[in-house]
Amino acid sequence: MLFSRTMLIVHFIDPELAAPMMGSPPANLSGIQISALRLRSGSLFTRGVRQYKQFSIPVGVIGTPYVERLVLVYQNLGNWSTTYYPLPPRYMYLAPVLGLLAYDASNLSATNLEELDIHASEDPISIEFTQVQPVRDAQCVWFDLDGRTNFTKVVSGNKCLTYEQGHFSIVVESTAPSPAPVTQPPPHQGGGGEGLDHWWVCTWWGCIVGVVGIADPVGVEIQ
């Protein structure tokens, strides 16, 4: 459904239009954003794309096999992120999944467009998740075209780097701390929060705070 809708948007791109074209998914996929940008392979390699949504594409990006024109398709899966890309146990998303895919744009009226592999031969492609606040132990997750799940380091608090296309997000592993031995609590000294370990986790739909003390750890799961 998502693939066919993306292709429908691509087919309506003006061949002379150099700006991204936005699309609206059907009602049953509300929350997903799709955009397509058509450009020459030579321009992509020599000039890159300074800012395409949250993606910054440097010079030196090569499409394989080579085609004269290609189309870069952007996807923001929003609240459908866990449906299309479920995470391993104990992990949760801090941002929606963002996709960058490439197709042969030589003939946009074709029924099935050929999917291309793009590779950054010099500097990596950068993805900035602007709504994510720095979180300890956060990781970038990358779902490649072969269906593999890969984890990499977050850069500058809210950026992921890649040399290839795929789908990307920032996640955190929710692990419960080891139970502490039962001891007599010290006398209350005021301040209300002393002796408790507070932690914050923020997602694109808000923030939560947990307190580790006598109570069990608090967890959040995206529906």
Task: Tell me about this structure.
By secondary structure, the protein is mainly β. The protein has a single domain (2-173), classed as Chondroitinase Ac, Chain A, domain 3 (Sandwich), CATH 2.60.220. The protein has three helices and 16 strands. It has helices spanning 2-11, 41-47, 81-84; strands at residues 21-23, 33-40, 49-52, 55-57, 61-64, 69-76, 91-93, 98-104, 115-120, 125-128, 139-143, 149-153, 159-162, 166-173, 197-203, 206-212. The chain is globular, with a radius of gyration of 21 Å.
Layout of helices and strands, plus pairs?
Elements lengths: L1 H10 L9 E3 L9 E8 H7 L1 E4 L2 E3 L3 E4 L4 E8 L4 H4 L6 E3 L4 E7 L10 E6 L4 E4 L10 E5 L5 E5 L5 E4 L3 E8 L23 E7 L2 E7 L11
Antiparallel strand pairs: 1-2, 2-6, 3-4, 4-10, 5-9, 6-8, 7-14, 8-9, 8-14, 10-13, 11-12, 11-14, 15-16
**Per CATH, which architecture?**
Sandwich
| Sheet having the most strands | 10 strands, antiparallel
Number of helices: 3
What's the rounded overall pLDDT mean?
76
CATH topology: the name is Chondroitinase Ac, Chain A, domain 3
Shape: globular
- Supply the number of structural domains: 1
Q: What Rg, in angstroms, do the CA atoms define?
A: 21 Å
Distance between the termini: 20 Å
Number of DSSP-assigned strands: 16
> DSSP strand (E) fraction?
35-45%
Q: Give the class from helix and strand content and strand pairing.
A: mainly beta
Helix content: under 10%
Q: Tell me, what is the CATH class?
A: Mainly Beta
